[in-house]
Amino acid sequence: MDTPKDADARRAIAPVICYPNDTLPAPDMARYAQVRAGMSKISETIAPPREAACFEVPAGHVFRISSVEGPQVGDLNLWNAHDLGERFYSGKTRALHGTHITTGERMWSSFPHLRPMATVIHDTLGWYGIDQYGGSVHDVIGTRCDPYTGNLLQGGHYHHCCHSNLTRALADHTRLPLAEAEGHVHDVLNVFMCTGFTRDTGQYFMKASPVRPGDHIDFVAEIDLLGALSACPGGDCGSEHTSDVAPCHPLKIEVFAPAPGALDGWSSPPVNGYDRSHGRG
């Protein structure tokens, strides 16, 4: 391969941010702080090790995902509780906010809705930032461990990967046939997972999560939500990715109601305003 004479000049061109996000509708973090300060717990769900669990969150309520026994990462799916066709869109969330999300950033829904589904309002791992390897926590770049990639790379049929865990949990919660439920499982928010890309090969990497018991991340549900969380078979994802070898721990999901009056005047965001004509009509 011949290197062009102007190779260095081409590489030196400054980047341009694809989606400047300063015009995004800003979450009302002062209001959400009030919601969090006066909230009261109404439910608790446990995602067992190497399994997933579903939970429901009414609009305006807070859900918290916590480490309870040891370092553990979780794969999170979200749907509109009334329409499984509206679901979390990790790719657009990544384009709008970056590879990892934290306080003040949002999980956005799929086309044609493209609206906030949940807003991060508190993150005890917000201190982590970006480490010397380019790693950070709560990523929207990994897709979820799945049996198809495992079969492709290593052979065999491992059933406790996050894709299968989420599929079983959704099927059980909705009473959909397993094959139909699988079609609704989608790319995830990797809660607590520490990941990045290597600078030499550009490969997706993981490293041991900094999460410890008591750490948690809080979200406000912007719409009525159905969620599913898988306690990944990789544990803290510091060694094994998809197997029964890594130590694994449960994850706790709590749902909190806002204090009376805290959301007066608040409403769920409308669906995206694009007219869907696509240049015709």
Q: Could you characterize the architecture of this molecule?
A:
- The protein has 281 residues and is an alpha+beta fold.
- It has one domain.
- It has helices at residues 7-11, 29-37, 90-97, 147-154, 162-174, 178-182, and strands spanning 40-47, 52-57, 62-67, 74-80, 83-87, 106-108, 116-123, 136-139, 189-197, 204-207, 216-221, 225-231, 251-257.
- The strands form two sheets. Strands 2, 4, 5, 8, 9, 10 and 12 form a seven-stranded antiparallel beta sheet that branches. The protein has a six-stranded antiparallel beta sheet with strand order 1-13-3-11-7-6.
Identify the overall geometry.
globular
Estimated radius of gyration: 20 Å
Report the structural category.
Answer: alpha+beta
Termini Cα gap:
49 Å
Poorly predicted spans: none
Average pLDDT, to the nearest integer? 96
The helix fraction, in percent, is: 10-25%
Structure at a glance:
With 281 residues, this protein is an alpha+beta fold. It has helices at 7-11, 29-37, 90-97, 147-154, 162-174, 178-182; strands at 40-47, 52-57, 62-67, 74-80, 83-87, 106-108, 116-123, 136-139, 189-197, 204-207, 216-221, 225-231, 251-257.
